[in-house]
Amino acid sequence: MKGNFRLKVWIIAIIVLGSVNFIQAQNLTIIYGNDMAARNSIATFQYNNVRYISIDDFAEIFNTHIYHNKQNKKTILYLNNSVVKITAFNPFIIVDQQAFQMPAESIYLNDRVLVPVNYFIGIIEQIIPNQIVFNKSRDELVIYPLATNNVSKIEIEDKANGTLIRILTTQNFTDSNLSLRAGQGWLYLDIYGGKIDSSSLYAQFKQGIISKVVASQISNELAQIGFQLRDIIIEKNLLLQSSNEILISIKTKKDFSAEITKVLEREKQKWLIDRIVIDPGHGGKDPGAIGRYGTREKDVVLSIARYLKELFEEELNIEVLMTREDDRFVELRHRTEFANRNQAKLFISIHANANYNRKMRGVSTYFLGPGKTEEAREVATLENSVIRMENESRYADLSQENFILSAMAQNVYMKESQELADMVQREISRTCGLRDIGVLQAGFYVLWGASMPNILIETGFISNPDEEKLLRSRSFQQKQASAIFRSVKQFIEKFESGI
Length: 499
Ligand SMILES: [Zn+2]
What we know:
Largest sheet: 7 strands, mixed
Structural class: alpha+beta
CATH class of the largest domain: Alpha Beta
Oligomer: single chain
Bound molecules: zinc ion
Strand order of the largest sheet: 9-10-3-2-1-12-11
Low-confidence stretches: none
């Protein structure tokens, strides 16, 4: 009906113009590709042996808008994302920034710009190749609905720690336009207001988590993209990356187990006991305790420490650092600082005991804590006394009350330290034939602030003549070193198996 009415208008226009060269030609049949039953036609005109159509009619069948400038006899046609400018009596058509020259000019009639059909459609076919086909032999123009597709491309990237899906759009979507859900081996993205070309977005993949991409226009308002998955999704995230990009990141069971394994492996590496600090007590101007036969604590403990170091390096792949390698003075606080700075995983301080009562004998092992017995406090006082040779003000007040307040917070490795002390004490007393005084806790400056399990071993009483003899003998020193080594090794195995 509408076509007939349009035809009448044109006939009147031609009569009014009275142009002999301008005659009506056969209507051009319009077929809609998505609905073969729907047909339409537009009027065409012959002028100087060239067949014309009006831009207005063309816009109407395409359901797109145009803009007229009567003064310049110019029409602008909006096609998809392209702007097509046609000026009457001008052979050039400007598409965006590009000029196309037609062999014949467009003309102007009744406030309308008319273009040569063949040339004009030829240009339009280049702009929207999938939406228009001019079948010249049947004089039919086949039109596919003007794609207002706003979802243009899907890219999938398999990353080491997940899969990234990039959806490129030609329109801004907001979070409220999008919904992501997973189920039954599929991940679905619903895009409200999305227009999608199902056929061009379909894809299959031989590798990766995603095996297939299926896009569908569910309704006029809803486009859906389905991703078929080879693994179970554990985590999915939707992100509007930029105005024209929707990002989906997914992590599957596989990614997660790989990732967790990696994190655990890294954590484990951090905890592995790969470096220890051995601290031979005293040194230099501080001889430590001195026995009746002139045996100095500093010499005995350095010797035991050297044997111990050798055992660790020979039998285990563990780096051993010593707070002193020779007879030199090292301040107490520098000993734990040294261990902390080197990120050692264990701190073992080696000493020999002394008492005014020369009958006192036996081996004991200490960890840092408020001294619970007079005996333990005495030992700590003795070992701490060296700070008189240092700048005492640098040391915290380790008096009982103060200690209880701060020691727990200070020594987060108390449990491990106690465990290590237990093992060392058991092994030395068992294999060296010494009296087992036991594991005790007390406030030793040399252990204060160590950020690793730490213990102090009192290998025997240098003030006891019998034990002094033992302590100065190389074989006994080696025996002690190997007892400490075995027990520390046992601790390391237990500790690392629990990581
Ligand atoms: Zn000592």
